[in-house]
User: Fold Probable transcriptional regulatory protein K0U00_07285 from Paenibacillus sepulcri.
Amino acid sequence: MGRKWNNIKEKKASKDANVSRIYAKFGLEIYVAAKKGEPDPESNRTLRVVLERAKTYNVPKAIIDRAIEKAKGSGDENYVELRYEGFGPNGSMVIVDTLTNNVNRTAPEVRSAFNKNGGSMGVSGSVSYMFDSTAVFGLADKSLDEVMELLLESDVDVRDIVEEDGIIIVYAEPDQFHAVQEAFKNAGITEFTVAELTMLAQNYVTLPEDSQAQFEKLIDALEDLEDVQQVYHNVDLGESD
Assistant:
């Protein structure tokens, strides 16, 4: 599990360095989630997940409130969720999730980012079968035994619980996100270092130094695109041959 947490941690560090861009993406994601159902996280589970993620990235309350208020209005902006799959240098695998109000713009931009950075677009399903949708929670200032006991007492099923770098990481099925969150909430735990519904690779690869540099340019190019919300991959960041 270590490689999985390391990649999530690297992803957060990268995003934390580009806060204005990330805040804009969260604003859109919150708007779309609130627009889909009730603009109330208590009754809208999708919105609740997005808000929990936003909290771990320190998204300002003003941005959250503005997005929810916009969703309550009569705005007629329609966004479509699209997933693209492709390959980076040395056969590395990449999944790109987008929210777009212009499908004709999004696909060419994603394809161009792949082509210009040593990658290529794949067909639907060419990569995603090697990833698992996973709920991930990270807790600081808790022991492994404390968290295990808490989840056992709450009768919540999880895939794994590990301790890495002083953080307790809980991996669960995506449909258990709310059950795990409620178990922690009932125990007075409301702050997480990470609270994500993410795609984790079943196996990770380490790239040679030159290929990793090119791969990181590919990920940066994808994440810079206006319509891209999430990028997942199977490369160990921070390690190279």
